[in-house]
């Protein structure tokens, strides 16, 4: 028995793809098994991998589109079935795949009548559309339509701001989140002190990247995020809340870490959708331009209750959700000033 336990405890953790399929062009599925872990380690790895896959894996998307002789997002063009707003929504659904971090440009120049799809767009050599059949717009008359698009690689959700746009250029609410969903499960094997855990990880992507590419990117990002802590020396850190420590280290080369600022950076790319709020509270926050977890500490409990149609019940719901999901509380006084 001792020999068995020693063998298991020293066995290297390995992973393998046990299932891979394309449900459709913009939905790819992968299932991976990772083993062996000590008890409790699967949850540690699973939670971190899930969050990194959903929030840190970069995606390529259309961020801006330009239409000739168009002055407003809700304008209509002669010979086009959709409004410009509808076309922007359709462009948002296109899933380009590319490795470059530079801004790229694409052009759709089509003469109707015709139903325009992603395959009709001239893309740079380093970019390809995952689904060439993705619908864009219908041209109902024998006219030429030109759409110039900007393509960028990023993380998270970028909210387009129309102010400042000119010459028929309109921002697209780009979703650079190629990982659609991630699940993990824990399975025990062995007995007694030799008990170990196996994890099954399921991941769905839009095809750029594939599930195995996404989980690899997420793992590398976790390593990059953790690596600075390997070089931290206790004597090089002072805390802004500790007056004696701050005084003692005055004049030294110590690095001061502001906990509030670190928290703000951490939650910048985490959206309020993750709080799973009731529809009323969620919609009120969106209307108040509160989109991320980092936006919430800008409002104290008293400030929050003054948001239009956002009563004390909604404040309590947000406060409870913040605590349950992130162990955070709405401040009594404002923490950050925009």
TrEMBL record:
<keyword id="KW-0804">Transcription</keyword>
<dbReference type="GO" id="GO:0000428">
    <property type="term" value="C:DNA-directed RNA polymerase complex"/>
</dbReference>
<dbReference type="GO" id="GO:0009507">
    <property type="term" value="C:chloroplast"/>
</dbReference>
<dbReference type="InterPro" id="IPR011773">
    <property type="entry name" value="DNA-dir_RpoA"/>
</dbReference>
<dbReference type="InterPro" id="IPR011263">
    <property type="entry name" value="DNA-dir_RNA_pol_RpoA/D/Rpb3"/>
</dbReference>
<feature type="domain" description="DNA-directed RNA polymerase RpoA/D/Rpb3-type">
    <location>
        <begin position="29"/>
        <end position="232"/>
    </location>
</feature>
<dbReference type="GO" id="GO:0006351">
    <property type="term" value="P:DNA-templated transcription"/>
</dbReference>
<comment type="subunit">
    <text>In plastids the minimal PEP RNA polymerase catalytic core is composed of four subunits: alpha, beta, beta', and beta''. When a (nuclear-encoded) sigma factor is associated with the core the holoenzyme is formed, which can initiate transcription.</text>
</comment>
<keyword id="KW-0934">Plastid</keyword>
<dbReference type="Pfam" id="PF01000">
    <property type="entry name" value="RNA_pol_A_bac"/>
</dbReference>
<dbReference type="GO" id="GO:0003899">
    <property type="term" value="F:DNA-directed RNA polymerase activity"/>
</dbReference>
<dbReference type="InterPro" id="IPR036643">
    <property type="entry name" value="RNApol_insert_sf"/>
</dbReference>
<dbReference type="GO" id="GO:0046983">
    <property type="term" value="F:protein dimerization activity"/>
</dbReference>
<keyword id="KW-0548">Nucleotidyltransferase</keyword>
<feature type="region of interest" description="Alpha C-terminal domain (alpha-CTD)">
    <location>
        <begin position="259"/>
        <end position="338"/>
    </location>
</feature>
<feature type="region of interest" description="Alpha N-terminal domain (alpha-NTD)">
    <location>
        <begin position="1"/>
        <end position="238"/>
    </location>
</feature>
<dbReference type="InterPro" id="IPR011260">
    <property type="entry name" value="RNAP_asu_C"/>
</dbReference>
<keyword id="KW-0240">DNA-directed RNA polymerase</keyword>
<dbReference type="Pfam" id="PF01193">
    <property type="entry name" value="RNA_pol_L"/>
</dbReference>
<comment type="similarity">
    <text>Belongs to the RNA polymerase alpha chain family.</text>
</comment>
<keyword id="KW-0808">Transferase</keyword>
<dbReference type="InterPro" id="IPR036603">
    <property type="entry name" value="RBP11-like"/>
</dbReference>
<dbReference type="InterPro" id="IPR011262">
    <property type="entry name" value="DNA-dir_RNA_pol_insert"/>
</dbReference>
<protein>
    <recommendedName>
        <fullName>DNA-directed RNA polymerase subunit alpha</fullName>
        <ecNumber>2.7.7.6</ecNumber>
    </recommendedName>
</protein>
<comment type="function">
    <text>DNA-dependent RNA polymerase catalyzes the transcription of DNA into RNA using the four ribonucleoside triphosphates as substrates.</text>
</comment>
<dbReference type="GO" id="GO:0003677">
    <property type="term" value="F:DNA binding"/>
</dbReference>
<keyword id="KW-0150">Chloroplast</keyword>
<dbReference type="Pfam" id="PF03118">
    <property type="entry name" value="RNA_pol_A_CTD"/>
</dbReference>
